[in-house]
Design a protein that fits this description.
Shape of chain B: elongated
Structural class of chain A: mainly alpha
Distance between the termini of chain B: 118 Å
Helix content of chain A: 55-70%
Helix content of chain B: 25-40%
Order of helices and strands of chain B: HHHHHHEEEHEEEEEEHEEEE
Distance between the termini of chain A: 41 Å
Structural class of chain B: alpha+beta
Radius of gyration of chain A: 19 Å
Largest sheet of chain B: 5 strands, antiparallel
Number of helices of chain B: 8
Number of strands of chain B: 13
Number of helices of chain A: 14
Largest interface: A-B, 38 and 31 residues
Number of strands of chain A: 0
Shape of chain A: globular
Strand content of chain B: 15-25%
Radius of gyration of chain B: 36 Å
Largest sheet of chain A: none
Oligomer: heterodimer
Chain lengths: 259, 345
């Protein structure tokens, strides 16, 4: 780890700062909530930072560890995510969600057998949560297994009040694996439940763009209204507007074949 | 000390929870900031990931594939269905795995057929052969996802070679059903230019009634056989029928006269080597007067002798292999060749 890895630049709120009168107490819950909000806005760096702040308040906060691993995965730093999941597993041995997160990191890092083994381990633990089912679905999708959709259904069923978030995650997983029509279904439901989340609109817009649906442009505009200046969303909106003849044909093929 | 996971109150000094086994560490010793990847290491990881995917290192099998395909009781079916990629998978109930590649093969074959004769067509045939070999190899169990890289490579090379032999045989069989050649003549009246590739069906017996203006491919006259400079000079020539058996063909100022009637030079052009001749020829029975291009260079003022023209233009019907009816290349002007107007009939 670098010498300056703990330095924070540009952050307005420091963890040690006392809250202004009338503000919420800045404990680990406060920062975990802010991390969740940042995640729903698609700002994974900010979310990671806030999970770290939550852990600075209380290093035994499970949400902080789990959130950090997930954000590292979102940022594409799979090797670091695996290292961090191992560290979290020292504190929370055999925790199914951490095992599942490590399985996801392995699968996305093209270590499919390892990922399958971790997922098997997670499924074998007590207290299988929605995230474990999501992870299982991702592992199965990596090997084009037919049970993935059942796992996604189980994840939503196990989610309870977090069902909208799980639907969003399910949609994102399907989208990443190019199951566009199935992803669209999940993302549309998630957008109805989480209308203020820029991430939902971004993923929905991308999915509609791949399928060549005309509403993709408006959906990405809505995303940019919620989070102005988001480079990824702007690029997606530009791509949708510039779609050429061949892209339209490819979108029609995707629509008809479901892939 | 209270366990952070299960809230069990452990004895002081313990390093792991008595109930759940979680680590009991003082807060000050825990580093809560995760390691971060640098930009270059992210790129390097991306390359490593791609290579792992390409070479299927640590890859799971995509679908449960049996260790070896059972040939017992299926040998005949496996051989009969192999010439069309995808049919074997359809028979095995696994068409979903290869439907995309089967459709791709079909498009490649159609594209290759359309561009046959061009380098692009040859390239597409090569791609189709490779894809065919791979698909059949998978269905036969020669190429197996569980094999190591060298095993898969060997299977792929073997199957592609087999497919190449099959395509060569089929190509030869198809080509034997057609005859063709590059036109040495430019005939503006029927939109044929010098260098166009013309094709037609072979004729089994000597043709008795070829229409004037028809393009034919015929075995080159014997007089040219011993003069051929290269081994690979074509043994056939493409020419245009000018005079039919029993007619008289006259060369007059760069045009043909048949039985005294002048032919339109746009439909019946006179090749350059006959321009300096004003001879008249009677076409014997069983022969045709055929106009073809020859690279005969003459000194200025020298006239061609009859004995040079006759063996090259009066062609016996038995030498004619095919009547060329279709302009194949260039692709932009592909289409049937019309017959020009015949003023003699």
């Amino acid at each position: 780890m670098g010498r300056f890895s703990n330095l924070e630049f540009g952050g307005k709120d420091k963890p040690g700062q006392p809250a202004a009168p009338g503000e919420a107490i800045r404990d680990e819950r406060f920062f975990a909530d802010r991390a969740r909000t940042a995640w729903l806005a698609g700002d994974f760096e900010e979310a990671l930072l806030n999970f770290s702040r939550a852990l600075e308040q209380n290093s035994a906060c499970y949400d902080g560890w789990f959130g950090q691993v997930r954000m590292l995965i979102e940022l594409g730093e799979y090797r670091e995510a695996k290292t961090w999941a191992d560290k979290a597993l020292e504190l929370f041995p055999e925790h199914p969600e951490l095992l599942a997160a490590k399985a996801v990191a392995c699968v996305r890092d093209a270590e499919f057998k390892k990922g399958r083994d971790y997922s098997d381990n997670a499924m074998g633990q007590r207290g299988v949560t929605a995230y474990v089912w999501l992870s299982r679905a991702e592992v199965l999708l990596a090997r084009r297994g037919k049970m993935a959709e059942t796992c996604l259904g189980n994840a939503v069923a196990a989610a309870g009040s977090d069902a909208p978030l799980i639907r969003l995650e399910a949609g994102r997983i399907l989208l990443a694996r190019r199951h566009y029509p199935a992803a669209l279904e999940y993302l549309q439901k998630a957008a109805g439940d989480l209308p203020t989340s820029a991430l939902v609109w971004y993923e929905l817009g991308r999915c509609q763009g791949y399928l060549g649906l005309p509403e993709a442009s408006a959906v990405l505009e809505q995303c940019l209204k919620l989070r102005p200046g988001w480079a990824a969303a702007e690029a997606a909106a530009r791509a949708v507007k510039k779609r050429g003849f061949l892209s339209k044909i490819a979108a029609a093929v995707r629509w008809w074949t479901g892939r | 000390m209270q366990c952070p996971r299960c809230a069990f109150e452990n004895l002081p000094g313990q390093t792991a929870c008595f109930r759940c086994g979680s680590a009991l560490v003082a807060e000050a010793t825990v580093d809560v900031h995760p390691p971060r990847a640098t930009a270059w290491s992210k790129r390097a990881d991306g390359v490593r990931r791609r290579l792992r995917r390409v070479f299927r290192i640590d890859a799971m099998e995509k679908t449960p594939v049996p260790a070896a395909v059972s040939w017992s009781g299926h040998v005949l079916v496996y051989l009969v269905l192999a010439p069309v990629p995808g049919l074997l998978q359809l028979y095995q109930g696994r068409f979903r795995e290869v439907w995309f590649w089967s459709v791709a093969w079909l498009f490649l074959i159609l594209g290759a057929g359309y561009l046959y004769g061009l380098s692009a067509g040859l390239f597409l045939i090569g791609l189709a052969a490779g894809l065919h070999g791979w698909l059949v190899g998978r269905a036969w169990g020669v190429i197996h996802p569980n094999d190591d890289l060298s095993g898969r490579l060997g299977g792929v090379v073997g199957m592609v070679l087999l497919a190449a032999v099959l395509y060569w045989l089929v190509g030869r069989e198809v080509a034997s059903r057609f005859t063709g050649g590059y036109s040495p003549l430019a005939v503006p009246g029927v939109q044929v230019e010098a260098g166009d590739y013309l094709v037609g069906r072979p004729i089994s017996a000597a043709p008795k009634d070829l229409a004037r203006g028809s393009f034919v491919v015929y075995r080159s006259p014997d007089v040219d056989q011993w003069r051929r400079p290269f081994r690979f000079t074509p043994e056939t020539t493409v020419g245009q029928v000018i005079g039919r058996p029993g007619e008289t063909v006259t060369l007059d100022n760069g045009t043909f006269l048949v039985n005294g009637r002048r032919l339109d030079f746009r439909d019946y052009p006179v090749p350059r080597w006959l321009w300096s001749t004003d001879e008249s020829f009677s076409v014997p029975r069983g022969c045709y007067f055929i106009s073809a291009a020859y690279h005969l260079t003459l000194a200025p003022g020298v006239r061609l002798m009859r004995n040079i023209i006759e063996p090259r233009c009066l062609i016996h019907a038995e030498r004619i292999q095919s009547r060329l009816t279709y302009r194949w290349l260039p692709v932009g002007r592909r289409g049937p060749i019309p017959l020009p107007a015949d003023p003699v009939r």
